[in-house]
Input
Amino acid sequence: MTLFNLDGKVAVVTGASRGIGEAIAWRMAEHGAKVVVSSRKVEACQEVVDKINKAFGAGTSIAIGCNISYKEQLQGLVDQANEAFGKIDIMVCNAAVNPFFGKSQDIPDDAFDKIMNCNVKSNHWLSQMVAPQMAQRGDGVFIIISSIGGLHGSASLGAYGISKAADFQVARNIAVEYGGNNVRANCIAPGLIKTYFAKALWDDETILKGATQRSPLKRIGVPDEIAGAAVFLASEAGAFMTGQQLVIDGGNMTA
Output
């Protein structure tokens, strides 16, 4: 048995047109999986798919557009993935939003609702749509990309942190409800990663210095440093890990 082998597996990755999601899609394909690349903009997804198929063979990956705000679009994503590849073995819930930067006291209701709907409810919906087929086969993996923002308070990302803390519980619930059917669920909690999503935090030198000065590694991460953990959790290497949160933050939470 090869611990990190994903041959024969089908992975669906949301928010996969760039950043962490793109890196996860690429590395899972590299390790043998068929991969569905999904985000709101299907054209951007297709660019990633073209690169993956060129590297690992035609038919390795397909693009499916989906806005995680809408339950019917999530169901369409699941249905199209099943139609194309026959099953879903690995569900990576990476897509998220953060439309507000500032004190929780000042966040408008609509922004708070959008954060909770996209970052929490969409993952809950996907679990309802995908976990039953995994349980029926007696095998499956959920990976939710959370954040260290769910592990501490914040004066500027409070609502986002609330949503990411809730994701830990979504994973624990899936783990408990479906563990008897060999379905595992875990969160990855990245620290500051150099992605477009987090650009406001690393593009400003003052903010970047403040975010990294206490970190033992004294730097921010890159998407590939999260992708490797996703491959671990999806493969036999992570077969005894479920209901957990894997912190990958350069040691920031230890300092």
About this structure: The chain is about 45% helix and 15% strand. The mean pLDDT is 94. Residues 109-137 form the longest helix (29 residues). Residues 136 and 181 are 7 Å apart (CA to CA).
